[in-house]
Design a protein that fits this description.
Elements: E1 4-7, H1 11-23, E2 27-33, H2 40-44, E3 47-52, H3 63-73, E4 77-79, H4 89-97, E5 101-102, H5 107-114, H6 116-125, E6 133-134, H7 141-151, E7 155-159, E8 168-171, H8 174-192, E9 197-201, E10 207-215, E11 221-233, E12 236-242, H9 249-264, E13 270-278, E14 284-290, H10 297-304, H11 308-317, E15 333-340, E16 342-343, E17 349-350, E18 353-354, E19 357-359, E20 367-371, E21 378-379, E22 386-394, H12 397-409, E23 412-414, H13 420-428, H14 430-433, H15 441-444, H16 446-449, H17 457-474, E24 500-506, E25 509-518, E26 521-526, E27 529-538, E28 541-546, E29 549-558, E30 561-566, E31 569-575, E32 590-592, E33 597-602, E34 609-610, E35 615-621, E36 624-629, E37 634-639, E38 646-647, E39 652-658
Parallel strand pairs: 1-2, 1-4, 2-3, 4-5
Antiparallel strand pairs: 6-9, 7-8, 7-9, 10-11, 10-13, 11-12, 12-15, 13-14, 15-22, 16-17, 18-21, 19-23, 20-22, 24-25, 24-31, 25-26, 26-27, 27-28, 28-29, 29-30, 30-31, 32-39, 33-35, 33-38, 34-37, 35-36, 37-39
Helix pairs in contact: 4-5, 12-13
Length: about 650
């Protein structure tokens, strides 16, 4: 077995690989960019090498530099993880040329599946069913338009070299085709260096079901159950599960055997995933093959009891597959939720910031957390915004869903926007519990997935007041007389009862509270209501009784910014001070950047008349494009940035003179 390997990746997948390698007695070499000098994967590795600046094109995508470090460190093999160079044919070839084992398939297999159009041709020959569409080499606009007409609408434009939802657009009719094609090609060129597209009929109610395959160097291949990855946003998976609910054993077997045929058709070696679209009538169609370990591989590990990274290392060393097909057994049900730094309420815009507070559920045989971050780490614009993967297992699907709901309630993050509340609503939604799954699940159930807060605003304000007051008490100096009022921070007055004021800002609203403190309890006045509050704070855990209702919340107070966590929901407020001068990020007639990122295109000139909703700027952040639209009708008066510029969240991009209402 290898004695030392290099991991050409970062974040949670690098940490995940290191854990298994260390368990097997293998030393690990990490690489890191400027942004990752203090990252968790660097600390976990036996040694680490600096590889370049923060942008991935100058660090994690520098294949020649990674190979140089592997040789310098004495690493016998390179594990690419997923993303970055994991499906790069040139990098796999360079490893082979330098006598370094690439822990993945041969470069010829990556090349065969790297082009979605070529892959479909190979699958057709192997007898794997295909979705109707076009995957030819002629990429001229006229040909693509003609093929689109032939395929029929709605259709899906998909980057030939793509992955992760990048370079993809759903087109409803021909009038949208040209703009969608240009945007998809531009995104594909930026992400993969290849703007070529394929066209597929867009099935309106499909499920995304994929098969985990594994092949050894002797040509043996097996499948290890299937995963349902239907719940997606922006064509990227949000929640995955194994096994896929509702499939017959005959369908499972047919899919698995088709997946193995697909892998063997390209002389595959190692871990791979064959993805299918599963239609409501039980038919399934080949979509693509990912020639690497998948983000969602832990759900397969949880139901099979196998360590897929260990399998990868053994197969790369030349060992046979650890199991034959008839030895593969599954037990129970597993789900994985991807926890992202993003704002679901703003169309899942990526978010940046510092993880100033991070508390995760306890791990056990039922709960697993795969992560590459620790409290205090920065979520930057340079990499994918995934914070962690939360994986749960139980005997049945219903029990596993309950585990997931509970675990999400115990996952608490402050300092950056996350999708935890959204995931909690998703896992607990009745249609999801009933396995009413399609790839448009999120858009079909928006009302359920974006619910109102579970906390009544007044009650939340009372709990916030209790948290603030109890934390102030905990910082009071210790005096010789514990009953002395003079060191208390509660606005105590001699010979009078004084209600201390506390202003809390929630969004744009400022709430003025009055608080009377009596011994171990408070009276809190909110508007015309009065609340009797008993509160006890233990670190970040507040136990409270509000008008006889016992309720417990966790919280984090940082520089007057308070976040309370309650049953998967959050309540955010600011301890308001008159000197703060809260200001809008941008005025009514202006266009502000909703995130940190780079300007890809400016689609207006000074003097142009624009309409509300018209796309004026295209930004790129975390490898995805985002259209910034005009907030109102008007005339462009100033443009502050140009293509290629880096901008910060809140920066004014364009000034618009709005039209006066008549």
């Amino acid at each position: 077995m290898f004695s030392k390997i290099l991991i050409a990746n970062r974040g949670e997948i690098a940490c995940r690989i290191i854990q298994t390698a260390h368990r097997m007695g293998i030393r690990c070499v990490a690489v890191y960019s400027d942004a990752d000098a203090s990252a968790r994967h660097v600390a976990m590795a036996d040694e680490a090498f600096h590889i370049g600046p923060a942008p991935s094109s100058e660090s994690y995508l520098r294949g020649e530099k990674i190979i140089e470090i592997a040789k310098q460190s004495g690493a016998q093999a390179i594990h690419p993880g997923y993303g970055f160079l994991s499906e790069n044919t040139g990098f796999a070839e360079a490893c082979e040329a330098n006598g370094i084992v690439f822990i993945g398939p041969p470069s010829s297999a990556i090349a065969a599946m790297g082009s979605k159009s070529a892959a479909k041709a190979i699958m057709e020959k192997a007898g794997v069913p295909l979705v109707p569409g076009y995957h030819g080499k002629d990429q001229s606009p006229d040909v693509l338009r003609a093929e689109a007409e032939k395929c029929g609408f709605p259709l899906l434009l998909k980057a030939v070299a793509g992955g992760g939802g990048k370079g993809m657009r759903v087109v409803e009719n021909m009038s949208e085709f040209d703009d969608a094609l240009a945007a998809a090609q531009r995104e594909a060129r930026n992400a993969f260096g290849n703007p070529d597209m394929l066209i597929e009929r867009y099935l309106t109610q499909p499920r995304h079901v994929e098969i985990q395959v594994f092949c050894d160097q002797d040509g043996n291949g097996i499948y290890l159950a299937e995963r349902d990855c239907s719940v997606q946003r922006r064509h990227q998976k949000v929640l995955e599960e194994a096994p896929a609910p509702g499939l017959t054993e005959e369908t499972r077997k047919a899919m698995g055997e088709a997946a193995v045929r697909a892998a063997q058709a390209i002389n595959y070696v190692g871990a791979g995933t064959v993805e299918f679209l599963y239609d409501v009538d039980g038919s399934f169609f080949f979509m693509e093959m990912n020639t690497r370990l998948q983000v969602e591989h832990p759900v397969t590990e949880m139901v099979t009891g196998q360590d897929l990274v260990e399998w990868q290392l053994k197969v790369a060393w030349g060992e046979p597959l650890p199991l034959h097909q008839d030895q593969v057994k599954t037990r129970g049900h597993a789900l994985e939720a991807r926890i992202y730094a993003e704002d679901p309420d703003q169309d899942f815009l990526p978010a940046t910031g510092t993880l100033r507070y991070l508390s995760t559920p306890d791990e056990s045989a039922h709960v697993r957390v795969d992560t590459g971050v620790t409290e205090g780490d920065e979520i930057s614009i340079h990499y994918d915004p995934m914070i962690a993967k939360l994986i749960v297992w139980d005997e049945t699907r219903d029990q596993a869903i309950n585990r997931m709901v509970q675990a999400l309630e115990h996952y608490r993050i402050a300092g950056v926007k996350t999708n935890i509340r959204f995931l909690h609503a998703l896992a607990d939604a009745q249609p999801f519990r009933e396995a009413d799954l399609t790839t448009n699940f999120i858009s079909a159930h928006e009302e359920l997935l974006f619910p109102k807060s579970r906390l009544d605003t007044h009650k939340a304000l009372v709990l916030a007041a209790g948290f603030v007051l109890e934390q102030r008490k905990s910082s009071e100096p210790v005096t010789a007389d514990p009953w002395s009022p003079f060191s208390r921070k509660n606005s105590w007055r001699m010979n009078s009862e004084y209600a201390q004021p506390l202003k809390l800002q929630v969004g744009d609203d400022i709430h003025e509270l009055k608080i009377l403190e009596r011994d171990d309890r408070y009276q809190v006045f909110v508007g015309d209501s009065v609340y009797h509050l008993n509160a006890k704070l233990d670190d970040d855990y507040l136990q409270a009784v509000v008008n006889g209702h016992r309720i417990s919340v966790h919280g984090n107070l940082h520089e007057d910014q308070l976040v309370l966590f309650y049953e998967g929901d959050t309540f955010k407020c600011t301890v308001y001070r008159e000197t703060y001068g809260f200001e809008e990020m941008a005025g009514e007639g202006s266009l502000a950047a909703p995130m940190n990122g780079a300007i890809v295109a400016v689609q207006a000139k000074v003097g142009d008349k624009v309409s509300a909703g018209q796309t004026l700027v295209i930004m790129e952040a975390m490898k995805m494009e985002h259209a910034i639209k005009a907030p109102a009708d008007g005339v462009v008066s100033e443009i502050f940035f140009a293509e290629g510029d880096q901008v910060s969240e809140g920066a004014e991009l364009i000034a618009i003179e709005t039209e006066e209402a008549e």
